[in-house]
Write a structure and sequence with these properties.
Elements lengths: L1 H28 L7 H5 L5 E6 L4 E5 L4 E6 L6 E6 L5 E6 L4 E6 L5 E5 L4 E7 L2 E6 L25 E8 L4 E10 L1 E6 L5 E6 L4 E6 L5 E6 L7 E6 L5 E6 L4 E6 L4 E6 L4 E6 L5 E6 L4 E6 L5 E6 L4 E6 L5 E6 L4 E6 L4 E7 L4 E7 L12
Antiparallel strand pairs: 1-2, 1-28, 2-3, 4-5, 5-6, 6-7, 8-9, 9-10, 10-11, 12-13, 13-14, 14-15, 16-17, 17-18, 18-19, 20-21, 21-22, 22-23, 24-25, 25-26, 26-27
């Protein structure tokens, strides 16, 4: 009897050890960063997606604050990106082949859709993606303030197109004509219009989102040249546009009237509000700072030292941190959103350009899901 009891206890212990080992192996296979649907859908803290102009998309686990995998976008020159509300599709503009890559975040499968020359920004609204292009853009750096734009092919001031892509049909369904070298895209607060920045002719234009008709043109030349970033406030009453060669951002009211300008550091680009609309964040490229302003008084709160060519950024979904892509430093900086201090640097090579998160959060390329 004692021998039988001992044997039964041994069998039970062996069975328990086997089950524990199986569960451990199963959990190990589903560690964030593995190429599984669970990992792709996001961890409890969420994921950040970062495009690199000379590579693909790096995926950052926001709990560990480290790159857990990269995605091959099947094309060269990824820049702007956006993600659907459910996190299942990531849309990336790929400059070199004039297309977007629509990526299944669970499987990493890629479908490419032709857009037009030099696609840049991506914004997603429901089942549609809006992609700006720059058909008149020239190779090389932009001209310095006061210099003439070089024109080697008589294609100066070709109107840009905002491609509208149906993500269900997986095809471009129409185009909206913008200005030359259309850059940033924002949706109006009522959802009826697109607000875009046109850096080559120094305008911000407003277009009916359904038929593409021009609603309003705002010239920026007297205030500053090369408008780039564009953002609407959470309450919908204010629009901001950075003027790269004015070293300021422009403030518009809900009817797109210019209210004022606010001085910034050299060559501002990415701009965003926090989710409460209390603070404004501006990435000043050549000044190498992320600037923070009071959104009511426009007084500067702080300059946060950054790195080289920092253009785009996003809050994390919990709004406790900000991630800033710094292309010529091959890094994403992690910034404490309360202390306004850099706390970590994540290596992301090959000229990181744009950054969005899932769940969606406030940033220069996206906005928080409602």
């Amino acid at each position: 009897m004692k021998f039988t009891a001992t044997l039964n206890k041994t069998r039970i212990s062996l069975l328990a050890l086997t089950l524990t080992a199986s569960l451990s192996a199963c959990n190990k296979e589903k560690t964030p960063g593995a190429d599984t649907p669970e990992a792709s859908a996001g961890t409890a803290s969420g994921l950040a997606y970062v495009t690199s102009q000379d590579a693909g998309v790096s995926v950052i686990d926001l709990a560990a604050m480290q790159v857990v995998k990269t995605i091959d976008v099947k094309a060269a020159g990824p820049r702007g990106l956006g993600i659907t509300d459910d996190g299942k599709k990531l849309i990336v503009a790929t400059r070199e082949n004039g297309s977007i890559s629509v990526i299944d975040t669970a499987t990493n499968e890629v479908k490419q859709i032709e857009i037009g020359k030099n696609p840049e920004f991506v914004r997603v609204n429901g089942n549609f993606a809006y992609i700006s292009s720059e058909p008149s853009a020239k190779a090389g750096p932009p001209p310095k303030p006061g210099e003439e734009e070089k024109d080697d092919d008589d294609e100066e001031n070709i109107p840009a197109k905002i491609a509208v892509v149906d993500l269900i049909k997986a095809e471009k369904v129409r185009e909206i004509t913008g200005g030359p070298e259309t850059e940033g895209i924002e949706f109006s607060a009522d959802g009826k219009n697109l607000v875009i920045t046109n850096e080559a002719d120094n305008t911000v234009t407003v277009h009916n989102i359904e038929d593409g008709s021009l609603v309003k043109t705002i010239s920026t030349h007297e205030l500053g040249d090369r408008p780039r970033g564009i953002k609407v406030s959470p309450d919908g009453n204010t629009y901001l546009a950075t003027l790269e060669y004015g070293n300021k951002f422009m403030v518009l009211d809900k009817d797109f009237n210019v209210v004022r300008t606010v001085d910034t550091g050299d060559t501002p680009y990415g701009i965003a509000f926090d989710s409460k609309g209390e603070r404004i964040f501006v990435a000043a490229n050549k000044a190498k700072v992320l600037q923070v302003f009071n959104a009511k008084t426009y007084e500067k709160i702080k300059d946060i030292p950054t790195a080289n060519r920092c253009w785009h950024f996003s809050f994390t979904p919990d709004e406790k941190q900000i991630l800033l892509a710094c292309g010529k430093s091959d890094a994403v900086l992690v910034i404490d959103a309360a202390k306004l201090e850099v706390t970590k640097q994540i290596e992301v090579k090959n000229l990181p350009w744009g950054l969005v998160t899932y769940p969606k959060a406030m940033g220069s390329l996206d906005t928080k899901s409602k």
